[in-house]
Structure formats: C-alpha cells, structure tokens
Amino acid sequence: MKPIIQKGLKQIQEEQIQEIHAVTGGDINEAYYVRTKHQEYFVKLNKEMDVSFFEFEAEGLSAIRQTGAINVPAVYGVQKDKETQIPMLFMEWIEGKKENNTDEILGERLAALHLSEGPGFGWEGKSYIGKLMHDNHLHNSWLTYYRDARLLEQIKIGQSQKSISGERNKQLMRLLEKLDTWIPNNPKSSTLHGDLWGGNWMTGKGGVPYLIDPSILFGDHEFEMAFTELFGGFSQRFYDAYHSVFPLSPEYETRKELYQLYYLLAHLNMFGESYGGSVDRIVRKYVG
Ligand code: ADP
Fold first, then answer.
1. β-sheet bridge partners, residue 283
2. By three-state DSSP, how is residue 250 classified?
C-alpha cells in the first residue's frame, strides 16, 4: 500500500514517507500510521468501498468539529488513487493515555455535542452505517425518520439478503405500525455521532477524549445513549458526567431497546444471524 499512500499524500503535502506501519483494531478498513518529516498521519483505505464512504466520514468529523463541543481528529484529505480507484482518508494521528478524568470529560463533552441543535432529523446526503449505504434526508418528524429511514431501511436490506423473512418480518412490520407508542415525534434534535460503540472514541494527548469514525445525523440523543449501552465499554463515571449536563427523560428505559434495535438490525445485515436472537427478543418484547 505504501506507493498508493505516498501518491495520495503528495496531493496533500509534497513529502516523503519516512515511516509506515499497519494499525489494527478497526472493523472495516485497512489502516496505517504514516510519518513524514513534519507530520504524523492516520490513513485509512478500503478497496471495496466508493470514495463517498470516506467523504461521509470526513463530513461527519467536520460537523462534529464545528460544534466546538468535543475533539475529533483533523481531516487532511480524502483521495482516490487514479489507477486502482482505492479511496483513502488522511487524518491527524491521535495518541495518548487515559487520565483519571478522561471518562468524565467524554461524558460532559458528548452531552455538549448533543446540546448542539440540528436543523431537523436525519442528514442530507449519502450516508453509511458501517459498510451499509443508506438513503438519508432531513425530516421534520423524528418518529417518521426513525421508522422509515432507519428501521424500515434496514428491514428492506435484510429482506433482500434473506436475513429477514417469515415470522421475523411479520413481527417487525407489526412493530413499525405501533412505533408511535414509544418513539417521540419531536424530541430535541441533537448532533449525534451515530455509531458510538466503545471502539469509536480514543484518548489523545493529556488524556483528552476524541470521537472517531462517526455516522453523523441529527436526532434524539437517547438513540446515541442507547447504543453506548448495547455493547458496553463506557463507565459509570462517563454516564454520571453525561447525565449531569443532559439528563435522559423518564421514558428512556421504555424505549432504549427500540433504539438498540436499529444497530442490531444493521449488525444482522452486516455480520449475520448471531444478532438475530437479540432482534427477535426485542421485537417480541414490544409486540408480544
Ligand atoms: P474502522 O473504520 O475500520 O472501524 P477505525 O476508524 O475504528 O477503523 O480505526 C481503527 C483503529 O485505529 C481504532 O481502533 C483506533 O485504535 C485506531 N485509530 C483510529 N483513528 C485513529 C487516529 N486518528 N489516530 C491514531 N489511531 C487511530
């Protein structure tokens, strides 16, 4: 990959690579540490994806940065190698050690991000959750957006891949019809990271937390908080700090799993039937 990365880097900065090594830990992309004379970079590449995949990630990082609420790596550029068509994302290299207050800062700053209000619900433009592309627009109603542009969109992907059919499909459709029982029509519209599991934040210099790898949208902050609880990785200190700035509503517990359902459907569609049991359990809980 070095020649391709070197070519891409030349578009951004006329500098030779002095050191390069692969970085592991992501779900989806090939990633590299790159050092030139003046700068360290984190570079992601993906042979299978369209350049819009990294453009969307860069757009999300830039939108989060603009709120001034929480740190994100600076984006230096999105490139597509002319010969191989491989897309690449060049960004700031982040490295640091957790301090005692890192979790609290993450909680407070995430709450500040969520207090940054959006112009509606959703996002205008081509979007991705993981590798899955989904149509995205700004809606006036969170309920309609969450039902049609999120749950139904994943259900349709599942139907076409045959991971959703028969009884599972019927029950999901029943749930969609009743969704207004639990999901609010017009909650506060927050700027959300959109894919905040424990692996999508990291610590930079001085123990300062950074958000990485967003799937940006405007929506109900409880959607984001529900996902942080799905796979764990966030401490009680994080939640206490978050709640002290932006409390969750008393109804949060009653809809939490409906918000986790979206991510479980996306995981079912990306990674297979190991997520099917959790999808079915949640749907049964709400529609009987
Ligand atoms: P993927 O999109 O494949 O899931 P990630 O963006 O999550 O990839 O990055 C993969 C790993 O690389 C992360 O787990 C993290 O350890 C590391 N990483 C991500 N962004 C940076 C960065 N800006 N600087 C240094 N390391 C990073």
1. none
2. coil
Residue having the nearest C-alpha atom to atom 7 of ligand 1: 26
Which residues approach ligand 1 with their CB closer than 6 A?
23, 25-29, 31, 42, 73, 91-94, 199, 202, 212-213
Domain boundary (25, 60, 92) is at: 92
Angle (deg, nearest 10), helices 152-161 and 166-178:
170
Q: Which residue has the tokens 């969170």?
A: 142
**Cα separation, 182 vs 197, whole angstroms:** 23
107 and 86 together in one domain: no
Query: pTM of this prediction?
Result: 0.95
Q: What is the DSSP letter of 183?
A: S
- Count of the separate structural domains present in the chain: 2
What does the pLDDT look like over 131-170, one tens digit per residue? 999 989 999 999 999 999 999 999 999 999 999 999 999 9
